[in-house]
Specification:
By secondary structure, the protein is α+β, with helices and mostly antiparallel strands. It contains five helices and four strands, in the order H-H-H-H-E-H-E-E-E. It has one domain (37-170). This is Prepilin-type cleavage/methylation-like protein.
Length: 173
C-alpha cells in the first residue's frame, strides 16, 4: 500500500523560513525609516517658527556692554557673554535683551512650540504644540574677542524628526 506524504520536507521548510525572513526584514526596514522622513508640513511650520525666532535674535543687542549708538563694541572689547539677570529670573522672550539670553532655552530647557508661538504672537498657536524649540548660543572660546556668536535653532517634533538652523549674530564694528 502506498502512503501519501502529508508533511513538509526539510528543504521546503528551510525555503519557507528564508522567504519569511526576507519579507519581515523588508517590512521592518520600511517602518523603521518612516519617522526619519521629514513631513513637508513639519518643515514648513518649523521654518516659520525658526524664521520668527531668528528675527528676534537679530533684533536684540549683541551684548549688554554694547553701545550701538556710539558704535562701542562691548565697552572696549570686554564682552559679557552671559544671559542678563532679568532673563535668567524669568526666561521669556519679552525679557530677552541680548543674544546670550536665548541660550536659556538650550539643552534640557527647550521651550514648547506653542509657548514660543504665543510669545512671538503667531496665529494659530495650537499648530505648534507638538514641537520643542532649542536655541543654543556659543562663542569661540579660543578667540573670545570674535566678532560673532553662533546661534543654533533646533526644532523637533514629538516623532523625533528635527531640523536645525545656524545663525551668526555679529557684533558692531
Amino acid at each position: 500500500m502506498w502512503r501519501a506524504n502529508a508533511g513538509l520536507s526539510l528543504l521546503e521548510y528551510v525555503i519557507g523560513l528564508a522567504i519569511l525572513a526576507i519579507v519581515l526584514v523588508g517590512a521592518g526596514l520600511f517602518f523603521v525609516s518612516q519617522p526619519r522622513q521629514l513631513d513637508p508640513v513639519f518643515q514648513f511650520r518649523a521654518v516659520s517658527l525658526a524664521e520668527a525666532l531668528a528675527e528676534q535674535v537679530l533684533a536684540v543687542q549683541y551684548d549688554a556692554a554694547n553701545n550701538p549708538q556710539a558704535q562701542i563694541r562691548c565697552d572696549g572689547g570686554e564682552c559679557n557673554n552671559a544671559p542678563t539677570a532679568a532673563a535668567q529670573a524669568n526666561p521669556v522672550l519679552g525679557n530677552f535683551s541680548v543674544v546670550d539670553d536665548f541660550h536659556l532655552w538650550c539643552d534640557d530647557n527647550a521651550i514648547t512650540g506653542d509657548a514660543l508661538a504665543e510669545q512671538l504672537k503667531l496665529t494659530q498657536q495650537q499648530l505648534y504644540a507638538r514641537y520643542t524649540v532649542e536655541t543654543c548660543v556659543t562663542t569661540n572660546n579660543e578667540e573670545p574677542d570674535a566678532p560673532f556668536k553662533e546661534v543654533v535653532i533646533n526644532i523637533a517634533d514629538q516623532n523625533g524628526s528635527d531640523i536645525s538652523f545656524t545663525l551668526h549674530r555679529y557684533n558692531i564694528r
